[in-house]
Amino acid sequence: MTGQVGGDKLRIGLVGLGSMGRNHVRVVTGHPETLLTAVADPDAEAVAAVSAQTGAIGFTDPMAMIAETELDGIIIAAPTTFHGPLAHAVIARGVPVLVEKPLAATHAEALAIVAAGRAAGVPVQVGHVERYNPAVLRLGQLLHEGWLTSIFAIVSRRAGPFPARIRDVGVTVDLATHDADMLSWVAGERPTRVYAELAQRKHGSHEDLLFGLLHFPSGASGMLDVNWLTPAKRRQLVVIGEEGMFELDYLTQRLTFTKSDLAQGSLIAGYAPTFTGDVLEIEVETHEPLKAQLDAFVRTVRTGERPYVDGEDGAWAVHIATALLEAASTVTPVFLDREGATS
C-alpha cells in the first residue's frame, strides 16, 4: 500500500470508462485530495480521450495498469463479470479498492473478494452510492432518533428505461442489489426469507423485471419493484411504521413524514373512513452522493479504517439478489441464515 498523508493528493486509478466510469472521472478530477493518475479500458478511443482530458496514463489492459502503476487507491467500474479478477489483482498489490456495485456477479465470487481483502488487510469498499444520498442519511438519523418505534414495511421502487450498457447480468443483480442493501440498512438487520417473481420482456438473455418480497427477523416486511421497462426513471423508498410513514425520492432528495393517527380508525355509520395524516417536509441539505462516496474512500485510503459500505455489505446485497433469482426459478421461498448461506 502506497497511501500518502497530509496535504498530498492520493493517486487514484480507474478501471472502466463507461457511463459510470465517466462519472468517476468527473468526481476524482474535481476532488481536492485526489489525482486521477491512471485509467484503463479496452476501448482505446475512450482511453485516449480521458488521458488527453486529465493527463492520466492510459491503458487498454486493466491488469497492466494495476501491475505497472504506483497508486494509492483503485476504482473498479468495469462490467460486473470482471469485478472478481480485477479486485483480486488490486488486493494482491495491497491497494485499497472501491468496487462499483454489485460487488460481483455471484455470491461465491463476492465472498472470495471479501476473504481476500481480509486476509491481505486491504480495505474493500463497495459503490452502493444510495447510502450517501443526503435524504437517506437524514432518514437514518431520524430512525436512530426513534421517529418510528417499530417498522412494519419497507417498499422500494427502482424503475426506468432499458439501459443499452447492461449485457452481462439482469436487473436483479445490477439494480436490485441497491435496494437489497437499502432495505437491510433501514431495517437494521438482514432478511431471513425471500420470494420473487421475474419477467424477461426486452433483455436478450436476462430478466428485466423483478417483484421481490423480503422477511426480516423483527417481523418487518420488504418489497422490491425493480425493472428496466418503465419509460420514466423512478427511484423511491417508503418506510411505514408505528407512528407514520417516511417517503423518500432519491432523485430529488426529498424526504417527507406523514404522521399516523390510528385513533381515528373507528367506523362511521358502518363505514371505515380514510384520514390523511399531517405531512411534514423534512429539511435535507443536498449534495452529490457520488462525491460523498469518494470522500469516504479518501478517508479509508488515508486511515485504513473500515469503509462505510464495505465488502461484507456488498456480498450480502449480492447474496440477497441471487436468493431472489433462486426463489423465482424454483417458485418457492428461499431461506437465508445469519452466515449468509441458503437452505
- Output mean pLDDT: 92
Helix content: 25-40%
The H/E string reads EHEHEHEHEHEHEHEEEEEEEHHE
Output the CATH homologous superfamily of the largest domain.
Answer: Dihydrodipicolinate Reductase, domain 2
Low-confidence stretches: 1-6
Rg from alpha-carbon coordinates: 21 Å
End-to-end separation: 39 Å
Largest sheet: 9 strands, mixed
* Domain module count: 2
Tally of extended strands?
Answer: 15
- Would you identify the CATH architecture of the largest domain? 2-Layer Sandwich
Provide an overview of this structure.
The chain is an alpha/beta fold. It has 2 domains: 10-129 and 290-310, NAD(P)-binding Rossmann-like Domain (Rossmann fold); 131-287 and 319-335, Dihydrodipicolinate Reductase, domain 2 (2-Layer Sandwich). The protein is 34% helix and 24% strand. The protein has helices at 19-30, 44-54, 62-68, 83-92, 107-120, 134-144, 171-187, 289-303, 311-330; strands at 10-15, 34-40, 57-59, 73-76, 97-100, 124-127, 151-159, 193-199, 209-215, 221-227, 234-241, 244-249, 254-259, 279-282, 334-335. It has a 9-stranded mixed beta sheet with strand order 14-13-12-11-7-10-9-8-15. The protein has a 6-stranded parallel beta sheet with strand order 3-2-1-4-5-6, sandwiched between helices. Strand 4, helix 4 (83-92) and strand 5 form a beta-alpha-beta unit. Helix 4 (83-92) packs parallel to helix 5 (107-120) and helix 5 (107-120) packs antiparallel against helix 9 (311-330). 43% of the residues are buried. Residues 1-6 have low confidence and may be disordered.
